[in-house]
Design brief:
Chain lengths: ~525, ~180
């Protein structure tokens, strides 16, 4: 016992190391969370630059700025960088920072693995981005990497596969860490079902990651062996079937889209109650809805491939299973609305992002329902309507939730209030330009403009110009966010609570959160998972 | 101290369990899914899959019913062949045996190996289209500029659902040099 006390005393005094080695060797969840967030912001601007190259080329019909080959590299790399480099690591970074604080744990359960799972990512992305400078250029067959097209990728092909392997490894290690932390390290009185929604969303997301990232690794490994070791998994000449790749890929791919949105649901479920000054409506039903969405995500994959030639019964099954997802999603939307009902609402930047999330994600959800209809999908398939749909769920969906989370917890991280005016300007410009950017794409898609093509028929010119103006407006507005981050240290000091009586353990520690928190497990009320003296 | 040890043991057992999941899902994707998919396609005819070895069928022809069989040919990527069906379609009675011939020509100066891969559409018909003899059962050798006539002998069985009046047989010609070299 005496040794344990001495150990504990020693650890309390242990501060961050000095210089770069602090970041290289750190096992502190807050340091690692910060690194994840900075990395993902960097990748967001890299991927955003690629998107602007795409939009510049599409501003007018005809070819103006780039070669079609390079255009295809840009669409492919934009997707890979944004999905695996910006959105996913940003959520993992938030999980690192906030999950231990929300459940009253001193750190993540596996701190050394945590360090490793972060530092793999910069390596993976150096590898992926280096393909831009290789003979034959970067991968250009689309982020879905369908064979046989992807097998025509030049020297960059093995680099693409290995970087996907590394990203998968990083995600799997991150997921294991989060599950072990949540299952084993909650403060003793915190009952699982009463756990805050962000932690719940991440627990379910982590299980999704564990289930599907290995399947993606398997699929890309098959591509690798088909290319270099003479197998014929996907080569029809050798008895394989390229359609099988699509099945395996989307068995990963559909849960993957929920990996990118469930943590966003968790964030919005944290922000809306705080600024409505009411507890979250239907906490338990929110948890069950998350679980239902996660389960359904495994049985809907073929709605991405209605046009490959599928028996009618198969199309019917996947259509109805897909439409069923709107039931638990509807539960969530209505619960958020009910949380706001008669609440004393205020509209600080995080709340604005959360509200825009609810509105605009729902638009993306509805266009998703349209795409789920087999007869309609055959018309919409591979058109700009699909591009509009998934950008609505990913940009004003996942990204707005991430921005909201950053504003919501920034005072807790830095100990200073950010510039609220700049935050609001950032929000309004983003919210306006994101619609200018993506809404016309619905019309383009319905009128028949195909995706992934650098040129188009002249009747699509006006809406494309509008979208390009929106793209530059949106991209430039994000620089305001960088300004907010850089000037945050100059803001007034934040209190421990930051907002008006928010619920949750993260608001019981001082702002900025000390390097080590919850050395002793905090006491919580069994029934609400919040500190006792709050209610 | 004891607390620390038990929590480490708990962590370790959970990590082992989760790693087990990861290994299981990778194995499922890599080792189980491809053969499972093949079996699934063979049973259901999914992807237009038909028999790849000679079938033996004894049927009595149903002369009251006529089904049109259409032939479609294509050449994969830049494979250097001319490949056509000698007749574009024929009217057949289910249960009766028929011949059709296809012609392919190697357009290069070197000898080539080709593999024809068949596919039936609609999918529900694929189990009822039985090939007795087919040039697609084995790979075909072509010397420089060689032109070959290749037969297929088939029966549409009488179980073919009533509502089907047209069946399409499609062949794609692949250059198997690369696959052959690897094996």
């Amino acid at each position: 016992m005496t040794t344990a006390v001495a150990d504990a005393a020693h650890h309390v005094e242990h501060g961050p190391a000095k210089g770069f080695s602090r970041w290289l060797f750190t096992t502190n969840h807050k340091d690692i969370g910060t690194m994840y967030l900075i990395f993902s912001l960097t990748m967001f601007f890299v991927g955003g630059t690629m998107a602007l190259i795409v939009r510049s080329e599409l501003a007018q019909p005809g070819l103006q700025f780039v070669h079609p080959e390079f255009f295809n590299q840009m669409t492919t790399m934009h997707a890979l960088v944004m999905i695996f480099g910006a959105i996913m690591p940003a959520f993992v970074g938030l999980a690192n920072w906030m999950v231990p604080l929300q459940i009253g744990a001193p750190d993540m359960a596996l701190p050394r693995m945590n360090n490793w799972s972060f530092w793999i990512l910069p390596v993976a992305f150096c590898m992926l981005l280096s393909t831009l400078f290789m003979p034959g250029g970067a991968p250009a067959g689309g982020w879905t990497m369908y064979p046989p097209l992807v097998l025509q990728t030049g020297d960059s092909f093995p680099f693409l596969i290995f970087s996907i392997h590394l990203m998968g490894l990083s995600s799997i290690m991150g997921a294991i860490n989060i599950i072990v932390t949540i299952v084993n390290m909650r403060t003793p009185q915190m009952v699982l079902i009463r756990m805050p929604l962000f932690a719940w969303a991440w627990l379910i997301t982590a299980y999704l990651l564990l289930a599907v990232m290995p399947v993606l690794a398997g699929a890309v490994t098959m591509l690798l062996t088909d290319q270099f070791f003479g197998t014929s998994f996907f080569l029809a000449a050798g008895g394989g079937d390229p359609v099988m790749y699509q099945h395996i890929f989307w068995f990963f791919g559909h849960p993957e889209v929920y990996i990118m949105i469930l943590p966003a649901f968790g964030i919005v479920s944290e922000i809306i109650p705080t600024f409505s000054r009411k507890p979250l409506f239907g906490h338990d039903s929110m948890v069950y809805a998350l679980a239902a969405i996660a389960f359904l995500s495994f049985i809907v994959w073929a709605h991405h491939m209605f046009t490959v030639g599928m028996p009618l019964s198969g199309q019917m099954f996947f259509m109805f299973a897909t439409m069923m997802i709107s039931v638990p999603t509807g539960v969530k939307i209505f619960n958020w609305a009910s949380t706001m009902w008669r609440g004393a609402m205020t509209f600080e930047t995080p709340m604005l992002f959360a509200l825009a999330f609810v509105f605009l994600f729902t638009i993306g959800g509805f266009s998703g329902l349209m795409l789920a209809l087999v007869p309609a999908d055959i018309q919409y398939h591979d058109s700009y309507f699909v591009v509009a749909h998934f950008h609505y769920v990913l940009v004003p969906g996942s990204l707005f939730a991430l921005m909201g989370a950053a504003y919501y917890w920034l005072p807790k991280w830095t100990g200073h209030m950010y510039n609220e005016t700049a935050g609001k300007v950032h929000f309004w410009l983003s919210a306006i330009f994101v619609n200018v950017l993506f809404f016309p794409m619905h019309f383009l898609g319905l009128a028949g403009m195909p995706r992934r093509i650098p040129d188009y028929s002249t009747q699509f010119a006006d809406f494309n110009m509008v979208a390009t103006i929106g793209a530059f407006g949106f991209g430039l507005s994000q620089l305001i966010f960088v300004y907010v981050l850089l000037t945050c240290k100059k803001g007034p000091p934040a209190t421990a609570e930051v907002w008006d009586h928010p619920k949750g353990l993260e608001w019981t520690v001082p702002s900025p959160a000390p390097y080590h928190t919850f050395a002793e497990p905090p006491k919580v009320d069994r029934t609400v998972a919040f500190p006792k003296d709050y209610d | 101290m004891n607390d620390k040890i038990t929590s480490e043991a708990k962590n370790r057992s959970l990590v082992v369990q989760l790693l087990g999941w990861v290994v299981a899902m990778f194995s499922f994707g890599f080792f189980v899914l491809p053969p499972l998919y093949n079996v699934f396609c063979e049973i259901t005819g999914f992807g237009g899959r038909t028999n790849t070895a000679a079938a033996t069928v004894v049927e009595t022809p149903d002369v009251n019913r006529t089904v049109r069989v259409e032939f479609v040919t294509s050449v994969n990527e830049y494979a250097p062949w001319e490949f056509t069906a000698d007749t574009s379609s024929m009217d057949v009675h289910p249960g009766q045996m028929y011949y059709a011939t296809f012609t392919a020509k190697n357009l290069t100066e070197v000898s080539k190996v080709a593999q024809a891969v068949p596919s039936i559409s609609p999918i529900v018909a694929s189990g009822h289209f039985k090939k007795i003899e087919c040039f697609c059962f084995t790979s075909q050798d072509f010397s420089a500029h060689e032109q070959k006539e290749m037969p297929v002998q088939f029966i549409l069985d009488t179980e073919l659902p009533d509502y089907i009046d047209t069946v399409t047989l499609q062949y794609t010609f692949f250059d198997t040099q690369r696959v052959a070299a690897a094996n």
